Amino acid sequence: MITSQIVMYLGFILASYSVVGNDTIQTLGTFLSSNQRKKWWILWLFAGSILTITLLYGWVQFDGDVSYGRLEKYALPEPFAWYYILPPLILMLLTRTGIPVSTSFLILTFFNEKNLMNMVQKSLLGYIVAFVVAIVVYALVSKTLEKRFINTPITEKENKIWVILQWVSTGFLWSQWLIQDFANIYVYLPRQLDFGILIISLIIILSLLAYIMYKRGGAVQNIVKSKTNTVDIRSATIIDAVYGIVLFFFKELSNIPMSTTWVFIGLLAGREIAINFMLHYKDRRKSMFKNLGMDLAKVCFGLVISIVLVFVVKYMSTSI
């Protein structure tokens, strides 16, 4: 029993670090890139406040379930075997290489492999929807807004306005992402948390978030920086707003967990293609398609790893 509890809490800590270190950068990446001159603790206070409010709201509204009902089909293992700490450990290793793997596939599939296909279908739909929405949006704004953002430095007066707009859009996006991805962290804890465990878990997550903010992201952050003009606060604001709206749509669609990573990669891919063709960057197209192909290959690799691990764990659980 004691060993099972150790695995449960250790799994939570490792999952928290893995998810915060991987998916957080995909959500706050443009925010960090466009606010490089601000002190890290200011950015942490902003993101941490929204995280705290979102977590407490879910706890109150869903009777102690901070996953917003997304763990209904994921029963807590009894007992917790040692191999349940493998998913976050592997995720930590992959994150250090800059591979944008999906925490939903790597972690949640361990707890209920029968729901894998539902997650895959919703995530693929998320990629397609984000890809199409990004193409449509940036086909409309590339020749007007994005071209101006690329060619014209922001003025001091404009910057004050765009700072407000970006922090609002980032706050909205961050809350929508948290509602989706709390499940990936809290799958290791009881589905109804008492107040004490809730506060302790919140302190752990906020501490890890502070570390990520202090480090200004990680290897995955390079994917954001490699895209066209993402360090411009004006462009970053539009990216965050579109991303947040897409996640909100899928939050309302169903409570089936999904990979926000796939939505993120689809959005960036659609944006890059639209900007490239609308602004006639013909000399960049070969490298652009190569980079986008690599991004998609990386998330597909994460999916394959997830499926392989499911069978490995099932084999271990029946043979030990």
The percentage of residues in β strands lies in under 5%
What sort of overall outline do the alpha carbons produce when their principal axes are compared? globular
Helical segment tally?
11
Mean pLDDT: 84
Poorly predicted residue ranges: none
Distance between the termini: 17 Å
- Reading the helices and strands in chain order gives HHHHHHHHHHH
Estimated radius of gyration: 20 Å
Structural class call reads mainly alpha
Q: What does the main sheet amount to?
A: none
Number of extended strands: 0
Percent helix: over 70%
Describe the protein's topology.
Blueprint: H1 2-33, H2 40-61, H3 86-96, H4 103-111, H5 116-151, H6 156-186, H7 195-214, H8 221-225, H9 233-253, H10 260-278, H11 285-319
